[in-house]
Design goal:
Elements: E1 3-9, H1 13-25, E2 31-35, E3 49-51, H2 52-56, E4 67-77, E5 83-95, H3 97-111, E6 114-117, E7 119-126, E8 132-138, E9 141-152, H4 160-163, E10 175-184, E11 192-196, E12 206-213, E13 216-224, H5 233-244, E14 249-259, E15 268-269, E16 272-274, H6 290-310, H7 315-343, H8 348-359, H9 368-378, H10 383-390
Parallel strand pairs: 1-2, 1-9, 2-6, 4-11, 9-16
Antiparallel strand pairs: 3-5, 4-5, 7-8, 8-9, 10-13, 10-14, 11-12, 12-13, 15-16
The protein binds flavin-adenine dinucleotide.
């Protein structure tokens, strides 16, 4: 059983950043990063959109080969198809995640971590000396590692947290089913992302068009199955794409789940930290989780390294990770979650009316803040929620 200091399970954004930061914080530690897929970053189960500021904390996007498109506008589409353009500068980027995730993993390796692809953690138990014995199977057969700290960065279907006894259950109403095509040969503004709401389009979620280039985009939607009319996400997507882009070539298809809940109650145990989707650290309002995963990975890697150096990897010590995450974004997610709940009470007529009101504002003055203000005037029941959000 080879000994390692930090074993990171999952080489998505959370795991790759965790491994890099653990190694940078304490270069003398052995850090191993496991990825069950045969290639980091593939298959892509993501619309690949990220905000500019969050991304820049981890990588420089200008001219980077892992960027597909720069985005400078957001276009909201009401259920009745009326569009509201919101002009912002430097809104964000559409990544090429196959390359981006590989880039992050390469940074971890450059920092000195060992990366093993095609290698899956299949279970773990506490060893008598207070470490974790982690069983792995992969290209080299079955083996196991003994680790001082295991970082579970194993995504939406995470097991590490459960193996460590953490409660990672998700209520069905907070689980979105997503389906997405890559669609080519279609006409849209390639500098904008489009978001459409509506019960007939994506009940409990929204549909998106995220440009990867001129005439080519990730076109998908996420919905809450409990709210659907019996159709699954792909059936809703087929109807939407067929209506909006009947001539488009569907050249790629993916499905996936997004947890639109709040951070798990406890993200740590003796010798264990969980980060990213594995800890439900997705923004529950937008469903975005890439930058959050990287921020959590950074915290997890640094916390693990400091704990090992201090010779104390107990839950008590590792709890600092949870507190730091909650202060950084976890508390905000609680507020976004309340807004999400409040939005569940509004109907398609509300969004249609809101689009008409907002379109009466000159485009250059149409900020997200003003749109939200108009939403509040139309729907005063959102005010207590908003107050909590802005305070
Ligand atoms: C359809 C869809 C669209 C999305 N669009 C966006 C978007 O536009 N913007 C955004 O910010 N977020 C988006 N998300 C969410 C985003 O993809 C995730 O929040 C993000 O990938 C989380 O990163 P992570 O590192 O926590 O997990 P992941 O990226 O899921 O990485 C986890 C890794 O762990 C590996 N793994 C799992 N189990 C094991 C194991 N036992 N052993 C070894 N390896 C294991 C997996 O193979 C995977 O590579 C979308 C999600 C979906 C499903």
């Amino acid at each position: 059983m080879p000994d390692v200091d930090v074993l990171v399970v999952g080489a998505g954004p959370a795991g790759a950043v965790a491994a890099a930061h653990a190694k940078r914080a304490a270069p003398e530690l052995d850090v191993v990063l496991l990825e069950r897929d045969r290639a980091v970053g593939a298959p892509v189960r993501c619309a690949e959109g990220v905000g500019d500021a969050g991304l820049r904390e981890f990588a420089e996007p200008d001219g980077a080969p892992w960027v597909a498109r720069k985005i400078s506008r957001v276009i909201f589409v009401a259920p009745d198809d009326s569009e509201v353009k919101v002009a912002e500068r430097d809104v964000g980027w559409i990544l090429d995640r196959t390359r981006f995730d590989a880039h992050l993993a390469a940074l971890a390796v450059a920092a000195g971590a060992e990366l093993l692809v095609g290698t899956e953690a299949s279970g773990m138990t506490r060893t008598p000396d207070g470490r974790w014995g982690v069983a792995v199977r992969g290209l080299r057969g079955e083996s196991s590692y003994r680790a001082k700290v295991v970082i579970g960065a194993d995504g939406v279907e995470a097991m590490v947290g459960r193996w460590a006894g953490l409660d990672t259950r998700v209520p069905a109403r907070d689980m979105e089913s997503c389906a997405q095509y890559v669609v080519q040969g279609i006409d849209f503004d390639p500098d904008a992302i489009y978001l459409q709401f509506g019960d007939a389009v994506a009940p409990g979620g929204y549909a998106w068009v995220f440009p990867k280039g001129v005439g080519i985009a990730n076109v998908g939607l996420g919905l809450v199955a409990l709210k659907s009319d019996g159709r699954n996400a792909r059936q809703y997507l087929d109807a939407w794409v067929g209506r909006r882009y009947p001539g488009g070539a569907r050249t790629g298809y993916t499905v996936g789940g997004v947890i639109v809940h709040t951070t798990v109650q406890q993200t740590y145990a003796d010798g264990v930290l969980v980060a990213g989707d594995a800890a439900h650290m997705i923004n529950p309002l937008s469903g975005g989780g890439i930058v959050n995963a990287m921020k959590a990975g950074r915290l997890a890697g640094c916390t693990a390294a400091a704990a090992i150096r201090a010779g104390d990897t107990t839950a008590r010590r590792l709890a600092t990770y949870h507190h730091a995450w909650m202060a950084l974004l976890g508390q905000d997610h609680l507020k976004y979650y309340r807004i999400k709940q409040a939005l569940e009470t509004v109907d398609d007529a509300f969004f249609n009316a809101l689009a008409r009101t907002v379109n009466a504002i000159p485009q250059e003055r149409r900020t997200l803040g003003r749109i939200f203000t108009h939403a509040l005037v139309k729907h005063p029941q959102l005010i207590p929620v908003a107050a909590r959000f802005f305070i």
